[in-house]
Write a structure and sequence with these properties.
Layout lengths: L15 H11 L4 E3 L6 H6 L6 H5 L4 H9 L13 H11 L7 H14 L10 H12 L6 H7 L2 E5 L9 H8 L6 E3 L13 H15 L6 H17 L4 E6 L9 H12 L6 H22 L2 E6 L1 E2 L4 H7 L7 E2 L5 H13 L5 E6 L5 H9 L10 E3 L9 H14 L19 H19 L7 H19 L9
Parallel strand pairs: 1-2, 2-3, 4-5, 5-8, 8-9
Antiparallel strand pairs: 6-7
Helix pairs in contact: 1-18, 1-19, 10-11, 12-13, 16-17, 17-18
């Protein structure tokens, strides 16, 4: 590979030790993508695309935000403009993305999946469009092929409890495809009681899927439990919760029964009732996870759908979310302690969106490590606005100082794109650069076996063993 290329073999690797660790220990490790938003239907159907805009720009609200900031009209983002016109507008935005993680990610994706080394800009847009589209038309460019080319051995999608799981079962039954595709339990709608009508509509769907008549709170929990069982039977070993903050208000069972009855009558809840119900549900979900040996994931701190005009036009996940400012530590401590005190604290991964909360969560996790499993309580990888070079470096630094980096379960894509597996490469290069620089500075031993094993563990082995998947760690 030409070292003069921007994305070259030593990209992000600042010294000999960094290069040795990456090329000898990180680069070839399999990928366990334990949290993503890929479509199981697209994997089952082995989806294909007509052009690069469809696989690279459609649905990517990271890129949409950048284009809006660059003055691009919405017609060329989510509107009626042609795919080529949208691609040209993004190509015109790329030169303005210097030092934005999208620049690194974009050029990495072009290099790895299309063998394009040229920098994307207005002058190169047409030739890159043509080269990428020619690659897309080849037989081996499809959803499943991209996963295999990326060395993915297992991925976990994100799924509502009312999902039929038919696509997961179809993938598992297909002996021609050996990548494990497992569901993840995402029950946010089961505690989203701010809108009684929407909650009741979801509850009716849950009742039908579980074949349980939901008459009261007890039967509601029974219906949720049946779906939890169905997810487990389909290979699910993780839950995921998108939360503004932890919910841990005091409540009685009589209060929750009355709140649920009010909801089912169509009554709108006041703030205190909402907080109590969310607290009860978060506890109930935690108990279910612990009883099955699952890992629970909490994603904290997103302030969502801030632009009401565009939310009405485009819906959620369209690029109008930001970092929130919420109280985390005190209710989180209460929630974890409540579960721990009842012997129902599952393995837990905490992700924060506000960088100020790195130390808060890292120290909180230390309160509940109990020796039952190595690294039971995990500080999650840099997420969303923090899954870039600076955010990853900060997360690694905090985890190193306040926990055990060697026990970290590593990176994930958290993406809807089949081209996002380069984020694992990005993370691995950053990890190796940090360890390599420390070795060269004499801050950690210059011991090839010690450092190499740490890299192998963080990149693959820890995830392979931590979640209870059917995977074998490598030596």
């Amino acid at each position: 590979m030409d070292k003069s290329e921007f994305i070259n073999e030593d990209f992000l690797l600042g010294g000999e030790w960094a290069r040795r660790l990456y090329h000898d220990h990180a680069q070839a490790r399999p990928i366990v993508d334990y949290h993503c938003h890929l479509s199981p239907a697209e994997i089952s159907a082995d989806a294909r695309w007509e052009n690069i805009s469809q696989v690279w720009l459609a649905g990517d609200h990271y890129k949409w935000r950048a284009m809006r900031a660059n003055g691009v009209d919405e017609a060329y983002i989510t509107g009626e403009a042609s795919d080529y016109e949208k691609f040209k507008k993004y190509a015109a935005t790329m030169p303005y993305l210097l030092r934005n993680p999208l620049y690194h990610w974009g050029q990495l994706e072009l290099k790895r999946y299309f063998d394009v080394s040229e920098l994307l800009c207005p002058a190169s847009a047409k030739s890159i469009w043509e080269k990428c589209n020619a690659r897309i038309q080849q037989d081996d460019f499809s959803a499943r092929s991209l996963m295999k080319r990326s060395n993915v051995v297992l991925t976990c999608t994100t799924d509502d409890p009312t999902d039929s799981l038919e696509h997961h079962r179809a993938i598992a039954a297909d002996e021609s495809f050996d990548v494990q595709v497992l569901p993840t339990w995402r029950p946010d709608k089961g505690m989203a009681v701010e809108n009684a009508a929407a909650f009741n509509e979801w509850t009716d769907k849950l009742a039908a899927r579980a074949e349980v008549e939901v008459r009261d709170f007890a039967s509601y929990i029974s219906a949720i439990g049946k779906r939890h069982d169905a997810f487990h039977a389909c290979g699910c070993r993780l839950s995921d919760h998108g939360l503004e903050r932890a919910y841990a208000a005091d409540y009685t069972q009589n209060e929750i029964d009355a709140i649920f009855a009010k909801l089912r009558r169509g009554g709108e809840l006041d703030c205190e009732e909402i907080l109590k119900f969310k607290s009860a549900m978060l506890y109930e979900f935690g108990v279910m996870d612990a009883e099955k040996g699952w890992t629970q994931q909490f994603h904290f701190g997103a302030l969502r759908n801030n632009n009401s005009r565009m939310f009405a036009k485009l819906g959620a996940d369209s690029g109008f979310d930001s970092v929130g400012d919420f109280e985390i530590a005190k209710p989180l401590a209460k929630l974890l302690d409540r579960l721990d005190s009842s012997g129902k604290l599952a393995k837990t991964i905490l992700y924060n969106l506000n960088p100020r909360d790195n130390e808060v969560l890292a120290t909180m996790l230390g309160n509940f490590q109990d020796g039952s499993a190595p690294g039971k309580m995990q500080l999650g990888s840099g997420w969303w606005f923090l899954d870039q070079k600076d955010g990853m470096e900060r997360q690694i630094e905090v985890l190193s100082q306040l926990g055990l980096l060697r026990r970290f379960v590593g990176m994930l894509t958290d993406s809807r794109s089949f081209l996002s597996y380069t984020r694992h490469e990005y993370f691995r290069r950053i990890l190796c650069n940090i360890l390599g620089q420390d070795a060269e500075a004499g801050l950690i031993p210059s011991d090839a076996e010690l450092l190499g094993q740490a890299v192998r563990d963080i990149c693959y082995n820890n995830a392979a063993s931590y979640f209870g998947f059917d995977l074998t760690p490598e030596t």
